[in-house]
Amino acid sequence: MHWCPRCRGVLLSPGTVDAPAAQRNYRWVARRPDHRTRRAGAATSAPLGPTPRYTETPRWGLLDPPPSPAPTPERPLRGISAHRDRLLRGTAMVFLVAGLAEYGRYLILLQNRARLIPGWLLSISDATVLVFGVIAPIYALVTAVSLVAWLIEARTIVFTAYGRRDPRKRWSLIAGCLVPGVNLIWPGVFLTELLGADPDPRSRRAVRIWWAAWVFSGLLLIAATLWRDASTLQAEADGVSFTGFTNLCAAGFAILTLWMVHALEGRDLRGDIRSAHRWVMAADPAQIVIAPVEPGAVVVRDDAGHDEVERADSGRTGENTQEEVVAK
Question: Which residue ranges have biased composition labelled Pro residues (predicted)?
Answer without folding.
Answer: 64-74
